[in-house]
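[09:14] KT: can someone run the structure on this one? pasting the chain below
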Amino acid sequence: MARSLEQYAEATTLTVLAVTTLGTLVYLIALLITIGGESVLETVGAMPAGWYADHLSTLTVAAGTMALPEIAFGGYWLFRRALNGPDA
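[09:31] RB: done, structure tokens below
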């Protein structure tokens, strides 16, 4: 079955909107988990005090790395679902 350009455009638009929302939520949850884990390690004494303030970029990259596979799979799944419809 041939799909029209309009169907691809609609599927792409829906996917971009959904993945941006999904990506933001997953990234924030991953960042909270990373910061929480750092706080636990700091409390236990495995990390020096104030490590979080000096290495925020490291925690941000770690959270992004944790969120990337979920966002990629979610984008693929949502695009296929938007293109084929809910019954496919």
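[09:33] KT: thanks! The helical segments are 5-44, 51-54, 56-84.
[09:34] RB: yep, looked fine to me
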